[in-house]
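Predict structure. Chain length: 488.
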Amino acid sequence: MRAETVSPNDAPSHHVGGRGRAAFTTVAAALGTVVVVAVSVRHAFVFFTGGVGIEVWPHQGHHRDMVLITVGMVVALVGLLIPGVGSSAPRPSAPSRPAAIVALVVLTSALIVDVSKTATLGFVLPGMREEYGLSNQYAGMLPVAGLAGTVLGSLLWGTLVDRLGVRRTLLLSTLGFISTSICGSMPTFEGNLVMCWLMGLAVGGLMPVVFSALTALVRPSQVPAVGSLIAGIATAGGYLLASQSAALLAPDYGWRSLWLVGAFTGGLLLLVLPLVPGTCDNAVRSAPDTALSSLSGHRQHRLHTFYGFMAGLMALGVLTWVPTVLRSSGVAGGAWESLLAGQSWVALPVAVVLALALRHSAPRHCARVLALGGGIALGLFGLVILTGQQGWALTVALTATVLFSNAMVASVVPMSSIHYASSIRGRGLGRIAGASKLGGLVGPLALATLVGTPAGFFVVSLFVGSGSVVAGIVMGMRQPRRGRVETS
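Prediction complete.
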């Protein structure tokens, strides 16, 4: 094929145009970032130190700051969403081990931020209900709005990370998290619903972004183990961050402080994002020969998505109703609260055990064990509730259900990440993460009329537990070996 020639007179024009567009996008992204961070941090600083009484908040600068943050986000979007200019520079080499470890710490911190925002919903609801005079049913729209945003965010950011790369997408998500911290100043509950949805949209896609980067930092065989450990640490750290923020800030500053403090935590995360190496944008790690290059019509992708939905339905859907079920079954108030609180202490050790198992066993075997164990444990838990048993039987059944279901959620995305080619990895993981969040969203709504009684919960436990068992069986089947099918 005849090589194309470039006129010497044309080359300078091409390079000048490329440099001009690159300079424009860099300036726009930097300017938008500075505006968003400066206004958001100043707004939160005024709340905590400016002497403005909580009773009269939001202060008179609220609407002005909202406009400035919106303008800053638009400018940053213009700079970050414009495709980068092609370059003949070689791809960055794989990072050194210390650099990879530092990057993993940064990515884990990003996931902690993701989990903490979801966990904060439960801590802001009591104060919000009291201030706005809301019924429990109407106040329940807040977590629905937030979880709905995370579902869409998983799909959106999964697509963006394939197009923009990890670092740009992380920056966009972090800016969205910082800017939506101003929802703590919303004067109406309806405004909080909109901002909570936007916050979910901003942080909901961190899961596919982080695990897309992970495949470039560690060997493919280590991704499931390292990813599950990161997810376990992020889950424990996110709940710890949310609970400690509530304990330290809420008594003196009220529920609004739990949103506004996000300007500071997001700002700290922004400062360490440059430690994520450029190699994460290039997916230098090789994928196996069976990696999927197209999402449409592939049985393996559908099975992983179904597994993710069942994991979310169990961990975030059914278990949401456990406090209600324990109360209806006659467990004393202090006893069931202590019982539930004790479950969180074993989450991190379970993540370590899961990581070790994934390091020495095939992911499909671990997926089968987790799903089968979770389904059986949930069925037994429903039977214990139905028969009114307490003591050790209730403790063992509940603990097993919580541990297996949480392990399913923590492992589904990292176990799936090795099955996708780099060109579609973000979209594939985004759909799986979105499916798990969708299970957590529709579960409480769809099962609300059934789980109020022990008999109803028993029926639900059998139905959902059977679905989990099915997910484990199909995930444990050996997939047919096939070559990549490249699509245009």
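Summary: Residues 10-49 form the longest helix (40 residues).
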